[in-house]
Amino acid sequence: MATNRTFTMLKPDAVENGHTGAILEKINAAGFRIVALKKTQMTKADAETFYAVHNERPFFGELVEFMTRGPIVAAILEKDNAVDDFRTLIGATNPADAAEGTIRKLYATSMGENAVHGSDSDENAEIEGNFHFSGREQF
Ligand code: RTP
Ligand code: MG
Questions:
Q1: What is the CATH number of the domain that holds 77?
Q2: Residues in the active site (predicted)?
């Protein structure tokens, strides 16, 4: 398996609820290396661009509102099989369907406010990481 990268955001619900440290510890324990890390807040334009793929979906307005309401923690992570292994670690989109021990099972509150983002492909991981971090911020 090749070493590759994924991109994550600890979403506003997780940060507001004080779960930043616990989630970063789970990510570390699962063997991901931190390539880039910061606390930031997305503007409406940022969220509309980041989630442009969902702009026709009924939940788009709610998603943009949620993702901009407070700070997030953004990170680029590296590991063998990073994209798929990270999505396994976070669990299903809806925490009610997420496996025991996954980050969403432990920390998400609802389908919309589900604590954490994980890229869905190597290509999107690169696009999303570069959206949040310059080349000089990636090590
Ligand atoms: P993510 O992109 O955040 O890692 O989540 P995902 O792949 O598991 O889910 P995706 O289909 O890409 O949806 C992106 C985010 O939109 C919100 N959502 N709300 N209310 C709803 O029906 C609904 N469906 C999706 C969630 O915050 C989801 O993570
Ligand atoms: Mg997604």
A1: 3.30.70.141
A2: 117
Cα 93 to Cα 110: distance, rounded to the nearest angstrom: 9
pTM to 2 decimals? 0.97
Q: Contact, 73 vs 17, CB < 8 A?
A: no
Number of domains in the chain: 1
Is there a binding annotation on residue 93?
yes
Contact in structure between 121 and 128 (CB atoms under 8 Å):
no
Instruction: Say if 128 falls within a structural domain.
Output: yes
Read off the pLDDT of residues 3-57 as tens digits, 9 standing for 90 and up.
899 999 999 999 999 999 999 999 999 999 999 999 999 999 999 999 999 999 9
**How far is the C-alpha of 133 from the C-alpha of 2, rounded, in Å?**
23
Q: Is residue 1 scored above 80 in pLDDT?
A: no
| Pocket of ligand 1, beta carbon within 6 A | 54, 59, 63, 93, 111-112, 114, 117-118, 120
Residue 121: domain span: 3-42+71-137
Residue 53 is assigned to a structural domain of this protein: no
